[in-house]
């Protein structure tokens, strides 16, 4: 029996999300090669074993001098100094800069003892001497620079003993660079969740197979797998389960090896195909109606295998946009939690709505939108028709504009919250 379901009986998106998050664990830590840890969460504190930079060094190509020897130098009254040595990056400073001498120095090279200031080539006769083929055994300083100019002090970036990164830091390119600068080539991180992905339905074809009358290609496995990759998980696309007990059970068994199993289709109310029967037999799986549009029907719970293994299972709706929006709002936070992340929300902005969003049944509407910025203000317009089967309007969108449950219509000109799927305006 199924009839019109009262919205009061439905779960809010937040309730659905809390129930899911309560059942997915933060995964354990492991040591990984640094370059593989992009987007992962650091599971160790990082303390500097040495100073960075390791010594006072030059910020410019120029001449290391004693400030008092170049004070007062001008183009009209340059200071002529003998050049008593050269030092390049990676070398040690051996010579000392004594009174009224200079050492030619390259960017990154250690400041020689005695020197306290670097005069860049630009403030000397470097160019002319080179152009004229003259020897580099003396230099004319044509401009006084402040004491300490172009000297980068030892430990300016990091001091030995500093806690440079805390446990829980999300590794972005800059953190990965910092770790490398501290000499790390491996680092402890929360491991990436392996996400098994199963499509269900007799109508489905694998992409790559020839088109066939009455069939459609499985797009959900691909959009979901790509989302998993984008957010730092490892997708395992297991292919299509047919609407038979045997086929379903076989695919679900394969999914038990993963940290999270995601299926699509077969979970809607009136739909009574294999998926629901099989899931109901195999674990504690609840079938929910979530107060959202698209993506109302959803399954979630723990799936168990005959051998005692179990895996959290998220059953997405079949329609391609429903599957993606449900993944966004409910699958993505679960994935991020497993990765050890604590900020689970997509960034949300406020935009001026350029056309109405109608909400006719008290569900939260996630409207596919194109957000653009003009004169410092964000504007949102719909990316096309909003049927939950219309995947190309999802492809044109860079955000999901949200009309709240209790608002029957949002008019053009109103301010709308938009979950940003992408910041780039490339797709628009
Ligand atoms: P169902 O939940 O099985 O009733 O499926 C709802 C709708 O989604 C139907 O039109 C299905 O053909 C479609 N659908 C189901 N699975 C997929 C998939 N993997 N890729 C694309 N469309 C799908
Ligand atoms: Mg189906």
Word description of this protein:
The structure is a single chain. With 428 residues, this protein is an alpha/beta fold. 20% of the residues lie in helices and 30% in strands. The chain has a 6-stranded mixed β-sheet, sandwiched between helices. A 5-stranded mixed β-sheet has the order 7-4-6-5-8. A hairpin with a 2-residue loop joins strand 23 (364-374) and strand 24. It is elongated and about 90 Å long. It starts with 12 loop residues before the first helix and ends in an 8-residue tail after the last strand. The model has no long low-confidence stretch (mean pLDDT 95). Adenosine monophosphate binds at residues 199, 201, 203-204, 216, 218-221, 264-266, 268, 271, 317-320. Magnesium ion binds next to loops.
Write the layout of secondary structure elements.
Blueprint lengths: L12 H11 L5 E5 L12 E2 L9 E2 L3 E4 L1 H4 L8 E9 L14 E4 L11 E4 L5 H6 L6 E4 L9 E2 L10 E3 L7 H9 L4 E5 L3 E7 L3 E2 L10 E2 L2 H11 L3 E8 L3 H11 L4 E5 L9 H9 E7 L2 E2 L3 E8 L5 E7 L3 H19 L9 E6 L3 E2 L5 E11 L2 E6 L8 H5 L3 E5 L5 E2 L4 E6 L8
Parallel strand pairs: 5-6, 12-15, 12-16, 13-14, 16-20, 18-23, 21-24
Antiparallel strand pairs: 1-11, 2-10, 3-9, 4-6, 4-7, 5-8, 17-19, 19-20, 21-27, 22-26, 23-24, 23-25, 25-27
Helix pairs in contact: 1-8, 5-8
The structure holds adenosine monophosphate and magnesium ion.
